[in-house]
Structures are given as C-alpha cells and as structure tokens.
Give the backbone structure.
Amino acid sequence: MAHHNQHVEDNSNKDFTKSWVTSSRFLFYLLFFSMAAYMLAGCYRLYKSRYKGKPDIEIQGSTKYTPEYK
C-alpha cells in the first residue's frame, strides 16, 4: 500500500512547476525558437529594405566639377 502511494506522489513531481528538468527544457526550446523567429524576421526586414541600385538622377550643370552655364 505504501508503494502505491509513493508511485502516485512520483507522478505529481512531473508537473512543470515542480520538475526542474522539464521546466528548463521547455524554457530552452522557447528561447531557441523565439530567437530563431527574431533572426528570421530581421533577415526578412533587411531583405525588404535592400539596396535597389543606383538611382537615375539628373545633376544640374552649374553644380558639376566644371560648371556649365547657359
């Protein structure tokens, strides 16, 4: 009878708040996946705001190294 009561108490120790092993494993995976999601979101944001190339602009003639006046 005492063995049966001990077995019931052992099952209650597998609770998240009471078991250090399960809680640390859960927190590790939570941290790992949240960091991976943060990094992927940052890479996506950098990809969206990437350099599109040299813009085609017109420079005024009076501001060039050798100015051109009309």
